[in-house]
Amino acid sequence: MTGRIAAACSLVLPLLVFAGLVSAADSVPGPAPQDLIEVAATKMLKALDADREIVKRDPARVRKLVDEILLPSFDTDYSARLVLGKHWRDATPAQRQRFIEAFYQSLLRNYGSALADFTADRMTLLPFRGDLASGQATVRTEVKRSDGTRVPVNYTMRATPTGWKAWDVTIEGISYVRNLRNDIGAEVDQRGLDAVIERLEKESPRGDAKQTG
């Protein structure tokens, strides 16, 4: 009898664990990662199409669209902590907040520039791969430039209490968070955190900036 009970438990327990994971994934509010990115990216690219001539003359217009449409779906606080890495632990609350805001502006500027040439009719959402129950997901898209070049644009997502959020974007194989983390870490080691924050603040226009916190 004991052997049968043990055998039964060995079959039931994995099912219970799996059910718990599925339940946790299902409890994340809002749209699934694939749907979230499809709606936001399509809306963003259509807005760029509508203002294409203005966008060419005024990069601030691109930043404004990214700020209003895309970045609400990004977990910029989490990304900023990852970028700062080991230096986050030693930073004061004031330094952390300043860095988060400076990072946000950097993301706004660089991501906006990367999207400026993309159009809505050239974006393809690729089949989803992964397990949502893990709380992590990668949404893969492909955008075709005007010269026909196909550019992979992938969004790394995480489940949060307020819904799925992207925390990194990888364009043509280059991870924004990982690339910036390497640069920022070396610069903080050499110059100090305050100097790095000041440099980011000077480089990043604040006209249409969203305030974090």
Task: Walk me through this protein's architecture.
The chain is an alpha+beta fold and 213 residues long. It folds into two domains: 1-29; 31-203, Tgt2/MlaC (Nuclear Transport Factor 2, Chain: A, Roll). 58% of the residues lie in helices and 16% in strands. The protein is built from nine helices and five strands; from the N terminus they run αααααααβββββαα. It has helices spanning 2-26, 33-50, 52-57, 59-70, 76-84, 87-90, 93-115, 176-191, 193-203, and strands at 123-125, 136-144, 150-160, 163-171, 174-175. It has a five-stranded antiparallel beta sheet with strand order 1-2-3-4-5. A hairpin with a 2-residue loop joins strand 3 (150-160) and strand 4. The longest helix is centred in the N-terminal third of the chain and has 25 residues, at 2-26.
Number of helices: 9
In whole angstroms, the N-to-C terminal distance is 59 Å
**Name of the CATH class of the largest domain:** Alpha Beta
Shape estimate: globular
Overall pLDDT, averaged? 79
- The sequence of SSEs as H and E is HHHHHHHEEEEEHH
Write a concise synopsis of the structure shown.
This protein has 213 residues and is an alpha+beta fold. It has helices at 2-26, 33-50, 52-57, 59-70, 76-84, 87-90, 93-115, 176-191, 193-203; strands at 123-125, 136-144, 150-160, 163-171, 174-175. It folds into two domains: 1-29; 31-203, Tgt2/MlaC (Nuclear Transport Factor 2, Chain: A).
